[in-house]
Predict the 3D structure of the following.
Amino acid sequence: MAVKKYADLPSEVLEKGRQARTAAVALANCTAHIKNAALVLMAEALVANTNAIITANKKDIETGRANGMPEPLVDRLSLNEQRIADMAKGLREVAALPDPIGEIIEGWTRPNGLRIQKVRVPLGVVGIIYEARPNVTADAAGLCLKSGNAVILRGGKEALNSNRAIVAVMAAAAEKTGIPGGAIQLIENPSREVAAGMMRANGLIDVLIPRGGAGLIQSVIQNATVPVIETGVGNCHLYLDATADGKMATAICLNAKVQRPSVCNAIETLLVHEALGENYLVELLTELDHCGVEIRGCERTVKAFPKAKPATESDWEEEFLRLVLAVRVVNSLDDALAHIHRYSSQHSEAIVTRDPVAAERFTREIDAAAVYVNASTRFTDGFEFGFGAEIGISTQKLHARGPMGLRELTSIKYVIRGEGQVRA
Amino acid sequence: MAVKKYADLPSEVLEKGRQARTAAVALANCTAHIKNAALVLMAEALVANTNAIITANKKDIETGRANGMPEPLVDRLSLNEQRIADMAKGLREVAALPDPIGEIIEGWTRPNGLRIQKVRVPLGVVGIIYEARPNVTADAAGLCLKSGNAVILRGGKEALNSNRAIVAVMAAAAEKTGIPGGAIQLIENPSREVAAGMMRANGLIDVLIPRGGAGLIQSVIQNATVPVIETGVGNCHLYLDATADGKMATAICLNAKVQRPSVCNAIETLLVHEALGENYLVELLTELDHCGVEIRGCERTVKAFPKAKPATESDWEEEFLRLVLAVRVVNSLDDALAHIHRYSSQHSEAIVTRDPVAAERFTREIDAAAVYVNASTRFTDGFEFGFGAEIGISTQKLHARGPMGLRELTSIKYVIRGEGQVRA
């Protein structure tokens, strides 16, 4: 219902939620011209205010270091001239993308003469809950604005000064072109209670997208009454079929494991058909070993490649996100499918094969956001798919699955035109 | 993650959830032939077992009456030969619909040669939580089966004997054609703990669809960690613009309020532009009064039609679901839009007008699942939209909005084919 009593919401969520709600009504009807002009101005303003943003960021870094923040996190938190220029570039790229809003997805006429159109509209108010990565602030604000959504950002408290500076600059720039004030909101109270309040702000927030580690995402799923899009976890498999081209298989395996092991579309388990032979297996594992990959293998793997550690049950379940690979020799495609059904997080799964029947079975039977034949799982990405942008990779089946671009930040409405039709 | 510890789930949810999960894998790959044959056999079996189902239903009715169940609820619970024949007819109609699964929604080739297809797949396991209406049991099972989903049904405990009989008949019939056992599951433990367990069975259930009154739906939204599709509440408005054709406006108003006042797509508030004049207003309200509609009006309405009661703030907020109508005279389209923005539940909203600019503004600015120009809100319905079926009407913006047919019971996956592509 539109009229709600929000007595139990923290005041900041209530206030900013209401402002965002009001802004969303106007923003839904902003033309692409206005939105694109805003994005370009926002990009220019970020660059023009580089020094102020870096000054704010330095405060965050100092506090972080004083509190013993590990260096990799300090690195993710840190901004410099180049990183701010990259944020601005991202906003300009979003400005150049087609506007998803107003698309007539389909239309038809009913026997009684009613004309029905299914039209793409914004979601309304999007809540983003994320960690101490200030680049997400600009990124998410840009994508939400382009898709006609007001956004409420709740970044990690360690980045609060940086986020304040970035949002202030962007919001001021956006308003100059006619974007309603309140379209870009930042939660400034760092308490968990305020984040929890966002999660149950039904009626004020239409959807929550958590971006970050598994802990953050699970916390949102467990506590939210607002609809959530789950993102992130990828326990991805590569299966080398009996007929795989060995050279292709090796290239794909190295790419999928080694090129960037810390991301969700990298593989964690390799399944190798026994028909490829022990020589091939040893050759492949040796190459992986040279790349610094630690192998945790099934019995047959360890026998063939004694440097491998024996894999435990938890190795098949774990998303390593580092240079560790679980390896199992399988007797058949059926065994590979069964293993994947059991352990997959339904993110990205790949087969290398020269057998079209095996390829068809794999693509039909594997239930995952992205299923690959003879290509690396690393392509599961909004840019690689050609969406021109990415707000995250959905690992649920409702609303969006796989890489989410601008279209995945939209909903639909039906517009029905008649000349006096009534229901019999 | 696919491998989960479900230690805190009630045993019935765990057991039936796992069976449904396993069945869903096989069901996703059943051909339309097999699914349609199953639906027809299920229909035949329902009719052939009419007596057994009615016997079971009588037990529920006796218990219900003994516990003081109100007669309208007893009527919704009651089955007879005709109602069972209607359930069977519904299953046959679903069999005749096109299979949504396997549709290639779109496809494109990337500059690196990767071919990407977006393919329609089932959601997986759908949970339906509903009230003591045994017809929903057959209806939901049929729609889920056709869309390739396993289903876990949790109906009102007052209908348990009826549901048991219906599910036993349907499941046995379905298995004869090759549908995997476990595809249609009924929760038999009537406790709230078991229903609550369904709501947090992430990993076993992909989506929950509550069907019933506002209390049931809110309870699911508040307690579920599994993604939910919110259905139901309709605080719908009809706005008669300054240029409205009076005769058309009256016909649409009577249809939208009187034809079936108890449903979510009936109107609850009428907004009348002052330019239509007091004579017209009195004429219209007199007709509504003759149909037994109680009018609760703004000051100007009460002045023109003294039989109307003065409307209170809560009258603009309430979904009456009965022959009560709130009426407000407005000065302009802007006033009408502002009223609807404030009170709408974003279900169905209508304008009657002869002014194309007013029609365009209304359809663009009103944010609702269905926005009508010169037609009754009563058309918001899967059958009236031409979907051939309906599992409910979504009032949220995520995944599905408005009437949900077979397509809204599906998800997508990306299938990517290459010849050895790796990411640079």
Observations:
- Chain B has a mean pLDDT of 95.
- The longest strand of chain B covers residues 410-421.
- Residues 11-27 of chain B form the longest helix (17 residues).
